[in-house]
## 1
Amino acid sequence: MAPLFVGSNSDDSRIRSDRVGLAASTSNPASADTGDVYYNSTDNKLNVYDGSDWAEAGGGGTLSGIASGALTDGMPVIVQSDGTIRSVVQEVNNFSPIGVGTTNYIQNGSEPKYISVIYNTDQDLHVAFYEDETSSNLKGSVIQVIEDSVTPSVNTKLVSSRHPSETDAAFMAETSGANAVNAVFYTSGTTLYTMGSIISGDMDGATLTLGSEFSVQTSTPTTPRCIATNNTDGRTFVFYIRSADVMCRGISWSGITASHTGGGEQTVTTDSANTLSVAYNGSDKVLIAYDEGSNGKAVVGTISGEAISFGSAVTFSTGGAALLGEDGVSYDSTLDKFLIVYRDQGDSEDLKAIVATVSGTSATFGTATDVFTGSNNLGNVYYDPVGGKHAIVINDQANDLHKVFMATISGTSVTVDSGTGVAFLADQNKRMRLSHDIDQERFLALHRGNQTQKFELQSLKTSTITKYLTANNFIGFSDAAYSDGATATVQIEGSVDDAQSGLTTAKTHYVQHDGTLSTTAGTPSVPAGTAISGTKIIIET
């Protein structure tokens, strides 16, 4: 007996000798009874009517639930303990005001000077470099942040026995046989600052093993600033002022042993620079900001292998010196923007912030925004990658305390968040430096006391991330867009979701905390399925 074909009209109804044919359509039939089937010729799926809705036939299927929050088509979703369905996308919460942790100390009774600090992402530890005023030695101390608690390590190391002056630090990932932190500083022979030096320390947990002190340049450099690149052989670029010129020198590393990079010392600019700050985008661009007496200027440096080249100086502030702190420039890795913070001596010495956009060998600037009006010491700025905001730290000299302002970049503009300007560390009039602990979602703040003669440490919580994805709660993909509280349909294991983009065919993809899919597993490892095209994935929970 021949198989029966059931079609939607006489033209579709045919008798075939070897198969059953089904009616094809680009949309759901207008009416149906339980058990009816049709082939969707648009998404190439066989569909069955279950009495209330059409569902994809085969090994996959769908489930329904109440949406907790809005869902977009193709969004990875989880089931919550109350049975509702929500997006996997993590939520960023910015604190206003910020949270200030308890105070701890590295030393008491001897005022430290020339503080710098860097976070080692591989070890989840901070390293502070500073002058111990009692001994006039440069020291390094490993510091751990756990939530609101800050613990300085007993493993404080002598870095240099020569009298240091300004310091800076950079982290260099394990690319040259060492998981290293680099400290750059200049020292004095008897009374004159004569030599700029750099030293690297290999870290194994809280154990810091130091290499030998190495001369960056012997002809009276000042204001050292440094960045570390992630070349396979390890490289550090040191910036400094000498005779009012901004200079640069490349340092190569074999483990923690330094040598000069070929090409020698380079001139960044011959402008009469007074203060200097640099920021690195983590790949190939450096923004060098400085004041040259009457204007604030910036130069773009481009890194290519062992070499660095510089564009022409561009003015971002006129009419008065734009004085910068040690960390007067930060890089926004989310927006690919730089933020410059400076004290405008041409405008009542107000502290201002301005956005810099780097393109090629030059930078363009937005409109400056007032951060703080009133007597202040130089401000420093640090990027919070968790909250996507910049923490601007100032000293309010009129009230003799530190304040933290949170700033947000939008396009070429910067806005100081309302509710920030949080005061902490009262009765202190010395500048401070911060480093961001990505694991603890906090800043480590270090400063030297004034009246107290203490080296104080605190954690600052400016933002936090709430993550919803676990190893077990992913169930599939939203089948359409749904509003909060609506009944949502979810495509589950065995189904094919066709609302994706940028997939790699024939590769397993994993759900990420931000709602994206990647061929690299996140933490936890949550497989989403196998891509069968750039837009389709077979769901495998």
Note: The radius of gyration is 30 Å.
## 2
Amino acid sequence: MRTYLAGLVFLFIIPGSFAQSVKNNTHYSVQKTITCGKGAVVSAHPLASMAGLQILKQGGNAVDAAIATQLALAVVYPAAGNIGGGGFMVAHLSNGQNISIDYREKAPAKASRDMYLDKDGNAQLDLSQYGHLASGVPGTVAGLFASLKYAKLPFVKLIQPAIDLAEHGFPITAGQAASFNSNKKEFLEQNKAAIAFVKAEKWKAGDLLIQTDLANTLKRIRDLGQKGFYEGETARLIVEEMQRGNGIISPDDLKSYEAKERTPLSFDYKGHQVISMPLPSSGGIIIEQMLKMIEQRNIAAMKFQSAGSVQLMTEVERRAYADRAEFLGDADFVNVPVKTLVSREYLEQRMKDYEPGKAGNSKITGAGMIRESEETTHLSVIDAEGNAVAVTTTLNDSYGSHTVVTGAGFILNNEMDDFSVKPGVPNMYGALGNDKNAIAPGKRMLSSMTPTIVLKNNKPCLVVGTPGGTTIPTSVFQTLVNIIEFNMTAIDAVNKPKFHHQWSPDRIDVEKDFPADLIQQLEAMGYTVKPRESIGRTELIQVLGKKIIAVGDKRGDDDARGY
């Protein structure tokens, strides 16, 4: 077994039970990658990865570990880990079954198409992005219980690590300290009562974060199941919070929420079966479109991050995101021509105006002709039986609406901004939409989350996903291409600099360590290139024979554990 360590932090080692955490305060390092043989967990925080690994070692399967990891992330990674948001799960089970579970948030019953427009018809994006009115009905807890039927261990065992971490506390990392400090203003604006994430002095690495209210909420879920969140005391606290801030989530909205098991999106790519999330995730469709548009163009011969390969990938990204804006929405509410969008004939037509060496133009290349979300978190898990799970969850923006439910201790999402508030008006990630993604009561907002599993010979070879709003599908796409086409190692596939194009705005966003000479070549073709901060935080598991390689992204406190 090989491990690669990075960034010494002060955290709790948990040798047996998370209840012992306070008594075992010591040093250990964030573990970026591990090579092992039985099972692995990769997530955005070491304590969450450790919680998932502990469950695997105690006889749980990959679904058990995924549930425990999600719950731990709700405690140790409050920027995106959550019980007040939603997400998607994609899984391949050892019996050959592929499943996907949709627990995306829903618009409340009192939501309406023009609820964020002023009397003159102007979009009021502050209302869709901050505060109580920005929150959709949370789906995460329902999703955990919907996935429980594929688990082995009792739920009380899976939730206990999260309860222990919330009740006894854990020392935060330097990155988390900086994040709490930079969000203090927004937290104070949206919360009148004292909350765990705000204190008089500045947070620093090693400070203890204790979340008593959250621990009590988790105990109600442990004792009462799904009803412990959507009914009773917790539901009462959510509704009271809504009333304090003119929010519109009602008791009936909570009680009636259901996660939905859907047929996973599945397609073949050069001897691999790619399994991803269907609508209301746009990610699976975008991934299928992009891979099929490059499939016959021998991108491998172009080599990794040559001007030719980056240009080709940019142009397929442009076309996929133009289609996203025009055609995609919640398929329970609108007709989406999915079969046409991913058909070879249609995609060949979409690439007819592609010119190697010349920049495309989004004003000319729009959506095809058919007749008929940045703070998120991802986890990847695989177990010794061959079960693989990819889960992406979100509050939408970092810390969601910044609204903490008084007395319950968790942050509510601001997912309503993922609807098309007004046709032609971009959301916080610059994504455009139309009536397909308009607000309607009970409707799920379009998402970019792309949890993905790749099979070879009917066995998992890749488990992957990332946060990053609209950059999620392009990050997953590039990771898959890096491995399948460019034959890169898992570590390089995750950590090499990424780029992104989403049709509008018409530019290529690149990470700051993107090669300068490559930027010059792209600009010479006619592209606008804009350096930016990190794109995504990919969590990858690769299976090579009997060897499992798990990699946590270098861009955060992401951590890989295995045995």
Note: The radius of gyration is 22 Å.
## 3
Amino acid sequence: MDMIQVAKKMEKAAIKSSGIDFIRLGFALFFLVAVLTYSFFSSGEIPNNVFLAIAALFGAYMAMNIGANDVANNVGPSVGSKALTMGGAIIIAAIFEASGAFIAGGDVVKTIKKGIIDINAFNGNVDPFIWAMMAALLAAALWLNFATMMKAPVSTTHSIVGGVMGAGIAAAGFTIVSWSTMGKIAASWIISPVLGGVIAAIFLYAIKKTIVFQNDKVAAARKWVPIFVAIMSWAFVTYLTLKGLKKIWPTIVDVLVFLPDEKKPSFLIASILGLIVAGIVYIILKKTVANKATNLHNTRDSINLLFTVPLIFAAALLSFAHGANDVANAIGPLAAINDAVITGGISAKAGIPLWVMAVGALGIALGLALYGPKLIRTVGSEITELDQMRAFSVAMAAAITVIIASQLGLPVSSTHIAVGGIFGVGFLREYLAANGQNDMLEKQQTDIEDEKRVLKAYSSELKTLEAKADKTKADYERIVDLYKAIDDEENKIKVTKKHIKSIEKVKYVKRDAVKKIIAAWVITVPASAVLSAAIFFMIRGIVL
């Protein structure tokens, strides 16, 4: 009877899940059809408008996959640490991703991401260029879709880079590719996660050293939490200025006339703005934390709560900067196709019509809302366990790593940085746990040796008594006691050995997740490239 009830519950759950999946698919298809219809009818008088409409469809599909996969890196740690609910995270991320795209996405975009191929190799032939960009978009989107299904957070930039490279090679041969640029991109596979992991681990250790390991955690929090959040404020304002606002910086300079007349913000200006905000945040937070400290308990969990609000702001700002930067991964090739169709030529930069920007911004927000939770859970909780302090350290790593890399001219991936930061936090926990347990292990090993000596003495005494010919009543009673004592000693040794094994097996980072994610990172560019080349040949075969 119980089995029947379980089967019925499973059936109901399956029906509910399939119903939700159907609704998601319905919304996604409605958006894609709407984009296709609008782009087709709004460009009815333009030659090759069919290519433009199909490209818009591919761009919308790409934008949705960016939202489903890449945005998880911005809000995943906040959700995993329970600073934000899943619903709250999706709302905040969707709003700020779309805002970043619309407000700071810029009005011009590079047609070829990262300059990985030479557009001159097309010799002014517009059709192969359009086919290549369409193939790149679709290939990158398909790869991201597959990665999301596999719960693997991958770089959307690397996906589109691989797509453009593969289509470029298919169209004009291997000489079209800037292999030095591709080498730098390959280097980011190592640079990004290592930098992110090291910086996240450093900040988490600093928080532990200054607050968690102190006897009076509340007093330590009153002193150090405002400092850490102020550093975070500097990092995020600097990061947002350098990366999130760079495309609209000339407009900002026109409004704020006291700023230097520069095409893009310098590190010095970004840092000064960051310092001003950091100072204001420190003053406000010092008083706020002091007031809250009166109601705090002298525990780690209680101190954790002080990092909740900064994490929410971090998720919002990271989403804004991501929307401003990575919307180009969806609309860059689309803008290039739009420009090529309208002008009949190929240019290194193309203007972004409002409808193209809307496709990117709304697509990212919709993809996040419909399919983002899967990757958010993976990033937030399926690599290592996160609390507010650990998530705070990951957010810090995301901002500071990008700042350092941009100043050193190093290629980095925001996805790899965020996930690398989570790896760093998890491995630091393992290191600290191992060091803290060394003394315990040594003590328990000593205890085992002591117990073995006692066991040997009991066994020797038992053997002597059992060999005695004329046993007294006291001898028999002692034999019974010895059997019991031997059993107790053997159980003690067994339990201690089991405990030692459990300590030695403690792993705070799930190895299977690490292997899967790294494998996905490594094959992203070649997988997108091969798929893109195949799609290019398919398009060319259909058209010609």
Note: Residues 414-467 form the longest helix (54 residues).
## 4
Amino acid sequence: MATMTGKRGLMEMLRAEGVKYIFGNPGTSEGPILDALEDYPDLKYMLTSQEGAAMGMADGYARATGKPAFVNLHIETGLANGLSLLHNAKEGGTPMVVTSANKDIRKLAEGRSELAEMVRLFAKWSVEVTDPAQIPSVMRRAFTEAKTPPTGPVYVGFSANALDGEADMEIIPSASGYFRLSPDKRSVADASRLLADAERPVMVVGDRLAQSGGVAEAVRVAELIGARVYAASYSEMNFPTDHPHFMGRIGAGMPGGHAILSKSDVVLAVGTNVFSGFFYFEGRALSEGTKLIHLDSAQREIGKSEPTDIGIAADPKVALAELAEALESSMSGSAQEAAKGRDFRMADEWAAQRQARDQRLQDRFDMSPMSAERMMHEIASVLPRDTIIADDSVTSRDAIHDAINFNQPGSVFGERGGALGWGMGGALGIKLAHPDRPVVGVIGDGSSMMTVQALWTAANANIPVVYVICNNKAYRILKLNMDVYKQQVLKEEDPQSQYLQMDFPNPMPIAGIAEALGIHGRTITDPSDLAPAMREALELGAPAVLDVSIDGSVEVR
């Protein structure tokens, strides 16, 4: 035990937890934290000029390292600005400890906010510390909550007196934690029998599979049963995109996704919500004859929205390994032959998909403005093999996946949760986690303007991220969503929309904003200029922005 101030106790706990960066935008009440940092040069405060940029940086850093990030915002006002990306962190399961300070409790302060209540809907755990003696135990629990599956953000508020007051403290960090929970043996046996007998098996994977490090095990199971594999989300590398079993991303709540899944007799959903979407659709996502096996570390999601035949609450990596062993020992010769037959058919289908992709690129190669496919083709041609993509492109995402194969864990990170603005800060956080690897942020023009202030941090801290802005001069996602709404909800066969307030008559000058901040910025309209400009930006060793003019029509595949 040692007597120390609350602010020093907080710093000692951060050091004990292995924290290197504090991502934040402080204010008056956070003065004690900044004062204490003067004695802790190993803790670097990554200052942002807008809270969304801080949240994005923390999210990217936490996901790239697999460790909880630490965020410091200002009282209720700054905290409120960070809530949209805190929502993303909650939905995506990003381990994060978010803090802000509050007014002193020793007097009845007018306007004192209930900060813990304010963020409760967006955090796994939310609490306010009002006594300095509470700080070590609360911080220990905060980091434990953040990294315990299902992982996610927590919030800790500090009254001013808790930071400045003194107490006897014992600095003990959170336990390392061994969270790989094994599945019930009967569930594995039942699931293996159902999958071995399946004639049309489908696997749907999500980001909690990637978070568990179980991609290799998922590949093994898919190959054993001859399953078609779809990604419910691809905000992390959850299945190799160049594997012949991988058929791309799927919107299970959309008519096309529903049709695909309903053709299956057994669906194995791994590490994903079953099945979420923004739009209402009638009936079940699966047909009545389709069996559902849901394997997930998020026990709360199992059986939540769709009738589930077998629910397995366990670490995806561990459970898939056991499932693979059960299949190898129990699959009959005829079942193995049937799986191999499906392999051959999928290989042909996969090759046809590649051919269709290449044909689409050629058909759209000479478009003006350039197509998203041409943009990503030119960029991919000069990217180093170890490049990490921070994807906040929204409607250009298909083009990214057409041009780049993701087959290594940690090669791509994307927005999840629905709140735009993640990518500008997210790319910076990823770069801090991997300073020796190139990081390219592929960002939609609308999304970039949500947190364009991240460029100031990039310049101020000289973080060498290359941003590619997909500038289609519109909120194209709103146009696409409007068509979906009219077709799926209003049941209009030939939807016609004026797309009110969805175009940008005055295009957003992202390159100009970058240049004003001292960052290399260039506007690209000619596709032949893009690859050389990308090569130049990568070689700078400094932040850069390529603002690329692309087609914004609503033609979809």
Note: The domain at 2-169 is CATH 3.40.50.970 (Rossmann fold).
